[in-house]
């Protein structure tokens, strides 16, 4: 059993706490949160103590730190935990600022750090990558990544989100890098505000298309909207020399109703905690593997690279031209 | 060009006339109907003459006769046309009475007669049979034939229909024989009147399940209802030693709407003339092949055998026990 | 927290133990198994003690007993636990002998007993029932229950299984009763041995069709095979006055490969512990609800009724005639 | 009956000839082709005379001219036929040169000219547009148009094709205009040569993504490849404020094979003459309507506008920047 502590008892922190607590090789050994009541509530739920950051860092029995606090603290906590010799599970994004993120390179480049891009652990996307890697459809040529949220967040969230590219598309940039097999060398982004005018007043967009191109000419389109109108819409199509492999949305059940109107399937899963429940479990399982010695499947450098693409997309949007990332 | 004449200018006759007229190797050389106005209208539409039966039979240039008149005339016209040396295209059923149908054996057993079980010519069911015959899923073990009409016919039709088994399930009995590769040796039927009480008052049923068993133990269930609630419902599942092959319903288009309610496909085709438009064309093409010398793919003996199964099902229903056909 | 004990540390017992141990309102307070090593191993895995049956029954703090031992012990343990005032979670079937099962009526009719027909807790079948109950497709008229195992069990299992109807179709009889809304009054079964001749030598069948009819004329076909050739095949179609609702098989992922051969979906789930993992969790959750006072959703009487239908099917098969259950 | 003549007896001309000849309101009254043998063969097939262009233009009984000759002749024949007072059915593209096409404005702007963008007449895309126009999914926000050929044409064709944008994507630009409800004001294209290096040596690309933006901010991505690896791949997704509507590829049949590998659908239609057989029929039917007085659904101005977008895409590709069309 590896002892791990959680920093950040918010919504996503509670998911990770629960997965760690239920994992056969992990023990949730402490909860840390700036808001004492939040820490107490979550700690009590899992029979774990509330700790201070210092206590956790100084306890040599604690092998892993799960960082699910606010984005602006991700880097500092990661550096601190890495320095203390802990394995780090850090929520995405690594930071909202590429310069800051890169500046942590000395501290984090060789840390045992899992950057928690949950989609890499989703069974559907993993099955897609396995098909691609198997060579069953030949050599990859292009990608279509569709990633639409069910509904836009409140303006208060938008204001501190870092913008659509860093907040939402960051996952898609990571998916693109994971699947393309080459780094994008050119980024073009175009965007509009079509969903909620308030998002536009805050200087952000809610609808975007980003086109990536790699050195060998592979193309990738990322389609984003803050609102799909039909639930959580996360699909990937990978086109290759001998066919295509796609991962589709997930429905609530396999039930269909056939009526005069035709065949109607059940609703698409609407909430990311449902859609990615298994991905979060697999991600925590991978963290347990890391504590057993397995290298991180996705780490600090991936977090920086995805952030660089997000910044490039924002720059392209501002300039109205393709840019190098 | 082979000259063919049509007997019976009703709904199905008009389909066959149109397909014959457009066929590159057929010429619609005459229309025969007891109702002169019907014959005139259809003949004019295709620039063909109205003929009497005698004229058609006596004209040695006429090679084929398409019989689409009322069911009680099918046998007589077939015998007459066969005796005149014509190739015969006879609408199903061969007759409503098994004794009568069998009595025509001497006259029709070796006639060039296509019994127009249109489903044998449907591209979907043909593709299913091709898969089965290819051995791709091993040896056939059982069949599920689902055959539901969009809506019940008027009681006036029910009264002269010959009953659900002879009128509607006759197609399914033919499909069963075509696919099973063995003759059924046992028939069990159960039925209810759930759709329209008037059908029950006329002594018929509107909902049925028929179970066939062959000598080697292959099983087939035929599911029938006079009303599906969702269009023309005609599906087959064939289970074999290495998997299953199925043919599904046909939709109006490939369009789907994705909304909060989920993914909704377009309507299923509702009308048999839409659903089987291509089957009717292929059937006529096969008749052209017969006029070129190809043997009939489905003939008199098949019509009798399907009718025997329909009678057996009716007998089983009446007795409440399985029977031999 | 309700304390529960498990009797029977075999394959299905281990699933229930794990679900109980992880349930927020349940505590696995003991493991009982005739084979001490099995009991020890499972108990240790969950940090629970090994108990004798007497210890468990005498401990007033233990509120619930999960019976996952061999079929021939289900009734005795249920009676004993009910007499001790425990809530009972009893694996299906209630027994292999209808007379014995009925004889326990006095002891079990009003017991707090959950008969663990897991499919009632499957999210897909629950969604199907919810649609049906919502009236969205009108009044139920007929059911098609398809239930095929991936591959036949070894002959040694067949020999003690009680036969296809009691061992395998018992689930389907329960589904039929759950959905039909009326008790079947007539049962007709036909069967063959097509999958494995050894099954036939043991006096059993491996392929069957059973037709049920209720007093109002509702029809239900149950299709069974010991081997599907394509994984765990468990589907239901419910036909009603305004359409149809169906629950389909579950695939390993949403991934499709599109190639010259067409679109190929991922494999169907093959193993019942995968296919019904969520059903087993929901079932245990319901048991927790029972310990909080909720009546059992499916109990002793349901177990007896499903067994009666299984015996009727076996009788019909032997007689070659429909029978009353 | 309206008399129409065909100019150009090549592959697509033969399709139009056949559809005109079978149309109940059209009579194929002549075939014109620079290669006499081609004209003779097709004319004979339909019992029509071979004509010279002058004969056709001078014959006041001929109401319509179908232009299916080589692209460089489309404009001249259209101008000539319009001047002769004929209704014109002109194959796409209107021309390969935007300047030339625009120069014909005086002659063709008010001509009765159907520019034969066949996809506008495809039942699937029409059903998609009908859903969109119905308001069922709210206000359109963005489009994904996927358009991949089964396999690349020979280099000899590429050399005279006008390039991927004018030859292949021209259809997609028309679809975009048809569905967007607004003219694109910005075009960005990126492309690669990934399918066949010979295409690159000829200065063309075989893989492209084009992003269109309208004045109100609607976005459209067009994805093109000269080779799909799985047949004719032509799909559209339209995203709107209340959901999405999509049109999918068409399969050869509804047959599926279920095996250990999962469910495999039948092949996608591979050949454009199969995929769009009905579209070609509907297109000719619309031409018949035009001869009865209906205005053209898609005409000269649409041909010029699609060509302008194709030229803009080529310019954007060359410049590496978005451009105005």
Automatic annotation (TrEMBL), chains A, B, C, D:
Any one cellular-component term (Gene Ontology): cytoplasm
Alphabetic keyword roster: Oxidoreductase
Record flagged with keyword Oxidoreductase: yes
InterPro entries recorded: Gfo/Idh/MocA-like_OxRdtase_N, GFO_IDH_MocA-like_dom, Myo_inos_IolG, NAD(P)-bd_dom_sf
A GO BP annotation: NADPH regeneration
Keyword Oxidoreductase part of the UniProt annotation: yes
Transmembrane segment boundaries: none
Domain GFO/IDH/MocA-like oxidoreductase: 125-245
Pfam family, one: GFO_IDH_MocA
Family named by the database record: Belongs to the Gfo/Idh/MocA family.
Protein name: Myo-inositol 2-dehydrogenase
Species this chain originates from: Luteimonas cucumeris
Lineage, opening ranks: Bacteria, Pseudomonadati, Pseudomonadota, Gammaproteobacteria, Lysobacterales
């Amino acid at each position: 059993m590896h002892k791990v502590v959680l920093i950040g008892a918010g919504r996503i922190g509670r998911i990770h706490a629960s997965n760690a607590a239920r994992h056969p090789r992990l023990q949730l050994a402490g909860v840390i949160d700036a808001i004492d009541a939040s820490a107490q509530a979550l700690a009590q739920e899992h029979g774990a103590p509330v700790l201070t950051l210092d206590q956790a860092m100084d306890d040599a029995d604690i092998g892993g730190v799960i960082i699910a606090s606010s984005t602006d603290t991700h880097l500092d906590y990661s550096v601190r935990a890495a320095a203390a010799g802990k394995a780090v599970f850090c929520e995405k994004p690594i930071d909202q600022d590429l310069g800051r993120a890169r500046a942590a390179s000395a501290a984090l480049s060789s840390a045992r750090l899992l950057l928690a891009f949950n989609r890499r652990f989703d069974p559907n996307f993993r099955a897609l990558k396995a098909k691609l890697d198997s060579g069953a459809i030949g050599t990859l040529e292009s990608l279509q990544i569709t990633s639409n949220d069910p509904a836009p967040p409140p303006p208060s969230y938008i204001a501190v989100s870092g913008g659509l590219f860093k907040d939402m598309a960051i996952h898609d940039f990571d998916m693109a890098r994971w699947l393309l097999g080459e780094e994008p060398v050119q980024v073009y982004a175009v965007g509009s505000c079509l969903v909620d005018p308030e998002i536009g007043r805050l200087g952000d967009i809610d609808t975007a298309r980003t086109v990536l191109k790699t050195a060998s000419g592979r193309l990738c389109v990322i389609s984003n909207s803050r609102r799909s109108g039909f639930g959580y819409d996360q699909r990937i199509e990978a086109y290759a020399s001998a066919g295509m492999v796609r991962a589709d949305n997930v429905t609530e059940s396999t039930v269909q109703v056939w009526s005069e109107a035709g065949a109607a399937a059940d609703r698409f899963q609407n909430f990311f905690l449902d859609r990615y429940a298994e991905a979060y479990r697999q991600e925590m399982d991978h963290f347990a593997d890391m504590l057993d010695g397995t290298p991180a499947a996705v780490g600090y450098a991936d977090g920086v690279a995805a952030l660089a693409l997000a910044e490039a997309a924002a720059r392209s949007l501002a300039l109205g031209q393709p840019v190098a990332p």
